[in-house]
């Protein structure tokens, strides 16, 4: 009886939260192809205006990488009507904050203002799209900024190159094989015309989604959107190239020497399917079960109980075309990378052959329910999720229904998906080690 009551309570809790968190939105298209999404929330006097462009590092020429990330920086340089160096001053002097970020799949810009400054936010984003100033001084300035970013975050950061090394070994044909920050040599040799051509191709209204979320008057917002964005000329339709990766059937072994570390790290990475698939969501469950935090199976076993690792963890790298499940560990004392891999494989075999317990299953459901609530707890988070689900998933209503997909995952599915993707012959094993001192005899 206790077990039944607990199950009923869990079901009611999950269903109740999902209903309470339903996100209302309105969407429509401008004549130039720009998609517009509006979400009204008057609980706080703030508003977010954001634009997500369907361009990331995977859209680059292999001989000219880093352009998508470069534009994340370059398009804050100024516009026809915003003088160079004035962008951030305008935002902060009007009580706002703004930022941008780039992935392999998309580039995202946003402003958060007091609700009485929505028109300013919309005007600034329309300026970024319609009137950017792309000149040599801006290119040279941002080239220096990006080189410093690469030095501090990647080249001179302990373990800073793990992701790029994993990607270049996991992908042979797909543009995911290079890092988002790209090649400094490619940026150095790129011409001003190269940058202008990239902007013309990808920064078009029909390759973007505009989201307004927060406290605003809807009819007034629509009028401003029409005034500022409708005059922007529609771009040529883009044909996205499809890249095929052959299945990994033998363990890929690689070694990388990092001069910034003293303790070696072992990495085991598995290629996973598109984040849009059901299997990818099941793998999210598996990742959380095995390696999310100090209560996960791997951490409790390898770090707490057996004490053969200083740290163990994982990164789930979900992408539009493929993903990666990247496990990593720091061996302790005389223990080796092989010791860690053995322990990891034992836990994976368990999940492949046995059903996880009811207790662990309900724990996973609660974890993902909390994540769902947290992702939609601010207007900034809602704005980004609305843009993401529309542009990358092709289903904006997933902001309300994706949690139901996670609810429907069964313990049996978890076992079968682990069998399908998480086998030793389907992974990369990377020994990420300190640089060998060749000066010693």
UniProtKB/TrEMBL annotation:
All copies of the Peptidase M16 N-terminal domain together span: 36-180
Its Gene Ontology biological processes?
Answer: proteolysis
* Top-level division of the source organism's lineage: Bacteria
Keywords in UniProt for this one? Hydrolase, Metalloprotease, Protease, Zinc
> Which GO-annotated molecular functions does the record name?
metal ion binding; metallopeptidase activity
**Which Pfam family, just one, is annotated for this protein?**
Peptidase_M16_C
InterPro entries listed in its UniProt record: Metalloenz_LuxS/M16, Pept_M16_N, Peptidase_M16, Peptidase_M16_C
Q: Where is the Peptidase M16 C-terminal domain?
A: 190-367
- Assigned protein family: Belongs to the peptidase M16 family.
**How is this protein named in the record?**
Insulinase family protein
This protein's species is Flavobacterium hiemivividum
